[in-house]
Every structure is written in C-alpha cells, then in structure tokens.
Write a structure and sequence with these properties.
mainly alpha; 66% helix; 15 helices
C-alpha cells in the first residue's frame, strides 16, 4: 500500500488575527472619514433652510424637503449649466482619447527630428502650474476669435500633457514585434496604430477616459477666462456663483449641497462603469 500523506491547513496565530483586526478597524475608520462628508452633503440637500442652519451635521433631516432640488431645476439656470458641462465634457473626453493616443504613439514609435526635444517640452509643461497659463490662454483664445464660444471652451482642452505621457509609456511597453506582421502585409502607420496597437491599449485608454471626464467636468479656471456669456456657464461656474447668494438669502446650505450632490453623480457613474476594466489592468497585455 502506498502511504497517504495528509496536508494540514495552517491556522493563523492569535497575533496575526489581532493584527488583521486592527488593520480592518483602521480601514473602516478611514472609510467612514471619507464617506461621512458625502452623507452629510446628501442629507443636507433634503433639509429645510432652517434645519440645515441649526443642525448642519445631522444625517437625518428633521423635515424631509425637496425644495432645494425644485429651486435648482425649476427656478434657476441649473439645467443650462448641466447641459453646457455635458457638451464640453463629451467632446473633450473624446478628443483627448484620440489626440493623446496619436501623440503618445508618435513619441513612442516614430523616429523624427526633434522627438526628444518635444518630449522634454512635454515634461516641462507638466511641471508648470495651470494658473500660470491662464492669462496667455485668454490672450490666445481672444486673438483667434473663439472667446465666449463652445470652441473656446473645448479646443484648448482637447489634449493634455499628462495624457500624452501616459499613452507614450504604455505604447512603449507593447513589443514592437506585434506591428511587424501588419507592416509586412502593407499596413501604413495609421492603420497599424488604429487596428493593431490601439485595441491593445485598453487599460491606458480607460485611464484617459476617466481622467479626461473627471478633469473637464470639474474644470473651472479655464471656463472663467474663456467665457462670460450666461448661456455658456458650466456647472462649476454656476455652483461657485451660489456662494454669492444668487438664488436666495441665508446660508443656502441645501441648495449648494444639492447642486454638489448632482455634480458628483456623473463622475461616480463613470467610475462604476469602468470599475472592472480598471481592476483588470492586465487586459490587453502581450506576451512574446
């Protein structure tokens, strides 16, 4: 008879269990710290003005009220703000995905004069605070005649240095050998990029989509210097104007936090949609 071997499952020691318990407790505390302001935001948006002023940290409204949301949607320009933000965000996100990918592929794969200088300039742009560029940005937008238009809001945001940097690094991680067969079959540079390389860059593309969506949705300084018409006000500019008492008197806590709560919904939905793709970072990897 062949002796049978038995495998014993190692039981965690008491010290290990205590360490894990402390770690989980700390994680729970941190989660509560981060979530609690959001819960206050949502709860306060359903309070009355008096209730929000007297007990701003309560998570249960003394009198449940939707007056803040009714005022926003029925007695303010909030729908116009939302529409403008949606239009700008959709075009900017699509543009950044396309143009950042093109520029990243060119810097990663194409040999042309001045490529290293251009990449050094890209790094330099990333190190410059955005507020420093506001006045030059206004002068350029005004000079070329797109001030106070959708074009002036969208075109300057169609590319960003960080997105190009991300795409360049990802394209460099893809072996060049995967492109050789397509070139042998007669595919041009753009065909190789579009049909071979770009589908393999899904993790990087999803990163660009999320960063571009969030960045353009929450953008404020650029819209301040590129528009002045009330018909082109975005959510960030409109919500910022609520602090000056535009819609009513008093603290306006319910109105402000209702607007902020609505602003967070599209970004949260975007993260939930792409959650699986973000976590599956190995998707699209290539083995030689």
């Amino acid at each position: 008879m062949t002796p049978r071997s038995f495998t014993r499952t190692a039981r965690p020691s008491g010290g290990l269990i205590a360490g894990r318990s402390i770690l989980y407790a700390l994680l729970v505390v941190l989660a509560i710290v981060y979530i609690f302001p959001f819960l206050i935001q949502v709860a306060t948006s359903f309070k009355t003005e008096a209730d929000a002023a007297s007990d701003p940290l309560s998570l249960v409204p003394a009198t449940f009220s939707t007056a803040a949301y009714e005022r926003l949607f029925l007695h303010s320009d909030f729908p116009i703000w939302f529409k403008n933000s949606a239009i700008v965000t959709i075009f900017v996100t699509a543009g950044r995905v396309f143009f950042n990918s093109l520029a990243g592929y060119a810097l990663a794969r194409l040999n042309f004069r001045g490529r290293n200088v251009m990449f050094a300039g890209l790094i330099a742009v990333m190190s410059v605070p955005g507020v420093v560029l506001l006045i030059p940005k206004f002068l350029v937008i005004n000079q070329i005649g797109i001030y106070d238009t959708y074009a002036g809001m969208i075109i300057p945001l169609l590319t960003d240095a960080a997105g190009i940097f991300i795409m360049k690094n990802f394209f460099e991680s893809i072996p060049a050998s995967v492109e050789e067969q397509a070139r042998i079959d007669g595919a041009g540079t753009f065909r190789v990029f579009w049909s071979v390389v770009l589908p393999m860059a899904r993790p990087a593309l999803i990163t660009i989509v999320i960063l571009s969506f969030q960045g353009s949705w929450n953008e404020l300084s650029h819209f301040i210097v590129s528009t002045q018409s009330p018909d082109l006000v975005t959510l960030t500019k409109g919500v910022a104007s609520l602090a000056s008492g535009q819609l009513s008197q008093g603290t306006q806590y319910p109105i402000k936090l209702a607007a902020a709560a609505i602003m967070t919904v599209p970004v949260a939905v975007m993260f939930f949609i792409f959650q699986r793709q973000i976590m599956n970072a190995s998707d699209g990897a290539v083995k030689e």
